[in-house]
Amino acid sequence: MAAVKAVAAERLLSGVHAGDSLRGRARWYLVHVPEGLEASTCEKVRGVVAPELLDDAFVICKERWFKRGGVWRLESSPIYSGYFFAVSRDGRALARSLSRLSFPAEVAGARSMRPTPLSIEAQAWFESALDDKRILRNSTAVIANGQLRVQSGPLVGQEARVSKIDRHKRCCVVRVGDGGRGFTEFMPMEVPFKS
């Protein structure tokens, strides 16, 4: 289980280097917490960390298609089990503050004393794709003459990012970030029509 969590953090933070820190700019940091306690720990952190160190803290959720009793339906769940995001202008000070708490919450990369923010490109993508409740919603698309056209949802206009579609499971693989510093994410997508 710990290996899976480490891979999730590594995947998100891959390719980020010290030049990305841009001191003074609000950046997103991945915070590791006990699995299943993402929302409650996030709330605690919001209540105890000084506002000058923490601009915001939130759990990103995404919709997923589930089939129960022969019926497909969307359910929302945390996208990264055992993690939430903290927004700060000073990652090192945030990491020091979290290390003093009486409950477990650790900024990814803080053990090396160089907390690593999410890449600027990935942060921008998440900011554009998330709704006001910080949920990655389902997209609806059609495939006509071999061309994907997203009709609704956060992936409208981002067809070039979609690298794979699984119509049966109602999901797709999306490239997040640019160049060698990006990663892929599974997103809910319903494609009811293909010609």
Quick recap:
With 195 residues, the chain is an alpha+beta fold.
Description:
With 195 residues, this protein is α+β, with helices and mostly antiparallel strands. The chain has two domains: 2-129, NusG, N-terminal domain (Alpha-Beta Plaits, 2-Layer Sandwich); 135-194, no CATH class. 22% of the residues lie in helices and 36% in strands. The protein contains four helices and twelve strands. It has helices spanning 2-13, 38-48, 91-99, 120-129, and strands at residues 27-32, 56-58, 61-68, 71-78, 83-88, 106-107, 135-136, 139-144, 147-152, 162-166, 171-176, 183-194. Strands 9-8-12-11-10 form a five-stranded mixed β-sheet. The protein has a four-stranded antiparallel β-sheet with strand order 2-5-1-6, covered by helices on one side. A three-stranded mixed β-sheet has the order 4-3-7, with no helix packed on it. A hairpin with a 2-residue loop joins strand 8 and strand 9 (147-152). The longest helix is centred in the N-terminal third of the chain and has 12 residues, at 2-13. It is elongated, with a radius of gyration of 18 Å. The N and C termini lie far apart (41 Å). The model is unreliable at 1-7 and 15-21 (pLDDT under 50).
Number of structurally distinct domains = 2
Any idea of the CATH class of the largest domain?
Alpha Beta
Overall outline: elongated
Whole-angstrom Rg: 18 Å
CATH-level-2 architecture of the largest domain: 2-Layer Sandwich
What is the topology, as strand order, of the major beta sheet? 9-8-12-11-10
Query: In the CATH hierarchy, what is the superfamily of the largest domain?
Result: NusG, N-terminal domain
Order of helices and strands: HEHEEEEHEHEEEEEE
**CATH fold group of the largest domain:** Alpha-Beta Plaits
Secondary-structure content class: alpha+beta
Task: Give me the number of helical elements.
Answer: 4
